[in-house]
Design a protein that fits this description.
Blueprint: E1 2-6, E2 12-16, E3 19-23, E4 30-35, E5 40-43, E6 49-53, E7 56-60, E8 68-72, E9 76-81, E10 87-91, E11 96-100, E12 103-107, E13 118-123, E14 129-133, E15 138-142, E16 145-149, E17 160-165, E18 171-175, E19 180-184, E20 187-191
Antiparallel strand pairs: 1-2, 2-3, 3-4, 5-6, 6-7, 7-8, 9-10, 10-11, 11-12, 13-14, 14-15, 15-16, 17-18, 18-19, 19-20
Length: about 200
């Protein structure tokens, strides 16, 4: 598959068929960065590029080969920079990872996460981190407290594949098999989508 990402400087990054490219301006000119099969891609506010390849998260500066491995083991499906300089990685097998000051910490079902198989990751306007899981609903990490929501709380399905926040602060969940779900203040309800 292909991944595309726009960095804070407006630069477009494209991972396609085993190669990472950097696009220049409005021209269809691409510069090859390096060859690798990339499963997740992010750019930090300072312009460093982060990518997941072969179960490792690599950090590098554009124009240079990746040199820093920041997380090892477990396929990372999504990651992003968060408030206060933290980096968050959602793993397909090993839960949520927080990277702070060069140290990676795993947050798993042993800590209250709904499942260690994560499919979605986002940070809301209050700096809470939300993860959608495969089979465990979704979880919110807010000020070091983890809360998990599932069908018992009105969530329409246990497989949550996307999480988004709207302008009013409501949380929207895309599920695999249960359609859309919307929630605010801890109350969740299915949202009827056209044709569902």
């Amino acid at each position: 598959g292909s991944l595309v990402l726009c960095g804070p400087d407006g630069r477009i990054w494209l991972s396609h068929r085993g190669t990472l490219y950097r696009l220049h301006g409005d021209q269809p000119q691409m510069e090859r960065e390096f060859e690798a099969t990339i499963n997740a891609l992010a750019v930090s506010p300072d312009g460093d590029l982060w990518c997941e390849q072969g179960g490792e998260v690599l950090k590098f500066q554009p124009g240079k080969a990746p040199t820093d491995t920041v997380i090892r083991g477990g396929r990372v499906t999504a990651f992003r920079s968060g408030a206060g300089g933290d980096w968050w990685g959602a793993s397909r097998e090993k839960g949520l990872h927080r990277l702070r000051d060069g140290q990676a910490t795993a947050i798993t079902t042993a800590d209250g996460l709904g499942s260690n198989r994560l499919m979605a990751l986002m940070e809301d306007r209050e700096s809470s981190v939300w993860v959608g899981t495969d089979g465990g609903g979704f979880s919110r990490l807010r000020r070091k407290q983890l809360t998990t929501y599932s069908v018992e709380n009105g969530v329409s399905h246990t497989d949550v594949v996307s999480v988004a926040e709207d302008r009013q602060g409501r949380m929207w969940l895309g599920t695999f098999g249960g359609g859309l779900c919307v929630g605010e203040k801890g109350q969740w309800r299915p949202f009827p989508a056209p044709g569902v």
